[in-house]
Amino acid sequence: MSDKNNATPDVVEEPRGVSRRSFLGTGAVTGAVLAGATALGAGTFTRESWAAAAKEAKEAKSKIHVGPGELDEYYGFWSGGHQGEVRVLGVPSMRELMRIPVFNVDSATGWGLTNESKRILGESAKYKNGDCHHPHISMTDGKYDGKYLFINDKANSRIARIRLDIMKCDKILTVPNVQAIHGLRLQKVPYTKYVFANAEFVIPHPNDGHTFDLQDKNSFTMFNAIDAEKMEMAFQVIVDGNLDNSDADYTGQYAASTCYNSEKAYDLGGMMRNERDWVVVFNIPRIEAAIKAGKFITLDGSKVPVVDGRKTDGKDSEFTRYIPVPKNPHGCNTSSDGKYFIANGKLSPTVSMIAIDRLDDLFADRFKDPREVIVAEPELGLGPLHTTFDGRGNAYTTLFIDSQVVKWNMDEAIRAYKGEKVNYIKQKLDVQYQPGHNHASLTETSEADGKWLVVLCKFSKDRFLPTGPLHPENDQLIDISGEEMKLVHDGPAFAEPHDCILARRDQIKTQKIWNRNDPFFAETVALAKKDGINLETDNKVIRDGNKVRVYMTSMAPAYGLTEFTVKQGNEVTVTITNIDQIEDVSHGFVMTNHGVSMEISPQQTSSITFTADKAGLHWYYCSWFCHALHMEMVGRMLVEKA
Ligand code: CUK
Ligand code: CUA
Ligand code: CA
């Protein structure tokens, strides 16, 4: 019988009957090919290739097996895509360890329901959706410091920060006057002072309906820098074209972003008109100096300093340089040796290697042609989207249309660009199917260790048990420690993790139980103080007009209050402090038929506000199984008729 989990089917089917190679035969890469490949499916798999894969998988099994009770070597942080959360995985086991709700509502932890989470969500709490793409860990001296993880929300133009010591989101910022925060990267050196974030879409300014013309000189998008510690806007830079992905360098001086819509077009055809778009490089010290000197403007009612990084009459601004690259580039990746920004061609089979050590000269206008900073443009295959690095001079690029990862050597690509006859391509490995991001262990740091490569495939097709019309994505794990890449694991994932990041387990240090002074619930503690409440000991009901504040403790298997009375129509705030000191004894609080649910982990205070709109008896109960008598951990809210 066929067993696709072991990659040894009896019947070898070619997905959708159209082979990848037949696309290769169609010649020029166009949007039509790209669209066609997506719609029709790609990838030719013979019985031999399945069998070979099966053999390799068996060999690799021992490597990825993390036995019961054993711990993974790496933390992986996965974007939850348009599901809006961040997921924590162990690598290489690929086991999901935790979910961190961010731009979504989560009924287990009460994220989006509790007062603590609503304060963090702020104004934007009204949005129940998000679209995460790029999770990145804060750095000091080009290495992960394990303090924060930042992630974008493309859907509602937000940036969130997650504290890695508690693995909870602690700040969310809506970026003003832009639409769709997409590419997000962090300053690596000397430390993550800034979060760099691209706003993707061009919009009129002010966007008040006075014009809808994207060619208007007041229609543009902006590059954004956020103060990572304060989570406040630092500055914005107006650019030509649009902005897709970005990365920062290892000197602290430059950041670079790809632009696929240099045309400022409205539609697909228009966005593919130019043979070349560009990479825009930002000179951070020059921008900082201008702002310090007061040489900035503000826009559309916001106070954020804005500088203009557009060309004027073909002349560069002091803040930016535009480097033409082919065509609708997507991913932008700094090599872990700090030498190159690599722009991935998408509609071109090439990637463009920009020498970072030539950027000083570029900004000093020492080149006739900005393309003199390009040291190689290796041809890799169809649909290059993202590149990652093993720290041994090799790069790994995803080929969306070819459904492959290509391993290539950077030095050899440079030699070939100079005319030497050298084959810089080391290996092409089929992946299943249509990969977007890939990410090698520690690749964004100077410590890239070349052990594991995660490839996030957009299509899983036949790789898993069918789940109806909506398929999972396929996050594949590849062993890159040897000469050859070896596929070792298929991991189904929900709702498109665009990107992920891997850190060594020693780089992430978490708290076992909450600190009573934690800022996460400090405001709730302050409010309790105003009511004269000692949260660790008091079980009290405070009546304040139509508002009722119920304070109680929880300790397995009982709440401090098993009954409280309110009047119909009262606005009730329940604040619970979990005085258990034992690791892992989390309690919950659910008020039945009121849409009320929250987590209270050891030494945590959580609160939630709702209207007691129904007269009668309403049970509340603990939702995390905490004790043999967990079912008995209940209480009653008695609502008197109005
Ligand atoms: S993007 Cu999704 S595959 Cu938002 Cu980084 Cu490239
Ligand atoms: Cu407390 Cu279950
Ligand atoms: Ca274009």
TrEMBL record:
Residue ranges of every copy of the Cytochrome oxidase subunit II copper A binding domain listed in the record:
543-642
Q: Tell me which residues bind Cu cation Z1.
A: 330, 386
Binding annotation for Cu cation Z3: 134, 437
Metabolic or biological pathway, per its Swiss-Prot or TrEMBL entry: Nitrogen metabolism; nitrate reduction (denitrification); dinitrogen from nitrate: step 4/4
Summarize where Cu cation Z2 binds, as residue positions.
133, 182
Entry coiled-coil feature ranges: none
UniProt: Cu cation Z4 binding residues: 498
This chain's function reads: Nitrous-oxide reductase is part of a bacterial respiratory system which is activated under anaerobic conditions in the presence of nitrate or nitrous oxide.
Protein name as catalogued: Nitrous-oxide reductase
Record organism:
Pseudomonas citrulli
Which lineage?
Bacteria, Pseudomonadati, Pseudomonadota, Gammaproteobacteria, Pseudomonadales
Task: Please name the gene that encodes this protein.
Answer: nosZ
